[in-house]
């Protein structure tokens, strides 16, 4: 006794849009051959698809009448529903139109004091002009930007991040160099700040988190230079008010001159070190029109800042 070949079974969830499109074509053409010609496929491929749909819907779908085939009432109902599904699917495939002037999106931006100071005024000015209904929420990044992106706590990070993570996109906005900031009456406004004098001076350090270290500390380690920290604070907020009235040196991005001038005087750092400020975002918003718009706005602001800074 020979066994008949096992009959392939299908489940409803295995039905795809391509199969429904084949069903619609056969229904419209009232012919397997006509559908095959319209779709530029073999008749056997069309027949196989219809057989699978017969199993899925437990209905013959088409019955022979004379030399042709006619759909069953169940087939006609399925095709009508399939047309609606296919139309909705094509709508989903279409590129979403984005009009900033009417968008009411809510976007969360993560950054630190420096990035807020140089980007946020310009960013909000443009948003208020072009997209007055967008709500921008700003949170503190510290050194947690990538974790915030991965956890969905924010949509965009602007910070000097270097670590790469799966599912995160990143682009460099600015390349910053370190400088030193001193009180206008400091002796270093009249004489060079050498590396030896730098090491012997008292410093103010901003530490965002317990284990965070600014990039320039690695350069100083290689040079064998240690800092004599007189004051450690958690943010940049009042650094300029402190330094202008004492002999402390504050080492930070040269871009802080935009923020601290004329309260503090910027002088060249006695070492060479730079670092990137990057914009990072997660894959989940990579193609979102409103997020693409916001990121392009941030990139344009960065371009303007580079031109103004001569970079």
From TrEMBL:
Pfam family name, one: HTH_1
Superkingdom per UniProt: Bacteria
Alphabetical keyword list: DNA-binding, Nodulation, Repressor, Transcription, Transcription regulation
Residues of the HTH lysR-type domain: 15-72
Keyword match Transcription: yes
Transcription recorded as keyword: yes
Matching Gene3D superfamilies: Periplasmic binding protein-like II, Winged helix-like DNA-binding domain superfamily/Winged helix DNA-binding domain
Recorded family membership: Belongs to the LysR transcriptional regulatory family.
PANTHER family: HTH-TYPE TRANSCRIPTIONAL REGULATOR LEUO, HTH-TYPE TRANSCRIPTIONAL REGULATOR LEUO-RELATED
Record protein name field: LysR family transcriptional regulator
């Amino acid at each position: 006794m020979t066994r008949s070949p096992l009959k392939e079974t299908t489940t409803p969830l295995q039905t795809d849009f391509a199969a429904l499109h084949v069903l619609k074509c056969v229904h419209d053409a009232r012919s397997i051959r006509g559908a095959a010609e319209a779709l530029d496929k073999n008749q056997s491929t069309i027949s196989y698809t219809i057989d699978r749909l017969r199993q899925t819907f437990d209905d013959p779908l088409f019955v022979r009448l004379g030399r042709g085939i006619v759909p069953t009432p169940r087939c006609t109902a399925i095709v009508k529903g399939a047309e609606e599904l296919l139309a909705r699917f094509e709508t989903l495939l279409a590129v979403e139109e984005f009009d900033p002037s009417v968008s009411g999106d809510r976007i969360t931006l993560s950054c630190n004091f420096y990035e807020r100071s140089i980007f946020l005024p310009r960013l909000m000015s443009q948003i208020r002009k072009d997209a007055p209904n967008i709500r921008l929420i700003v949170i503190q990044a510290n050194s947690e930007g990538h974790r915030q992106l991965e956890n969905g706590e924010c949509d965009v990070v602007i910070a000097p991040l270097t670590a790469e993570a799966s599912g995160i996109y990143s682009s460099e906005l600015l390349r910053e160099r370190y400088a030193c900031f001193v009180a206008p009456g400091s002796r270093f406004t009249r004489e060079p700040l050498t590396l030896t004098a730098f090491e012997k001076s008292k410093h103010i350090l901003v530490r965002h988190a317990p284990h965070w270290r600014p990039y320039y500390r690695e350069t100083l380690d290689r040079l064998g230079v240690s800092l004599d920290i007189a004051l450690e604070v958690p943010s940049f907020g009042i650094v300029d008010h402190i330094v202008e009235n004492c002999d402390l040196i504050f080492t930070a991005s040269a871009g802080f001159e935009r923020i601290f001038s004329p309260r503090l005087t910027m002088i060249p750092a006695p070492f060479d070190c730079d670092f990137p400020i990057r914009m990072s975002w997660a894959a989940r918003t990579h193609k979102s029109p409103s997020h693409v718009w916001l990121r392009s706005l941030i990139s344009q602001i960065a371009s303007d800042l580079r031109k103004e800074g001569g970079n």
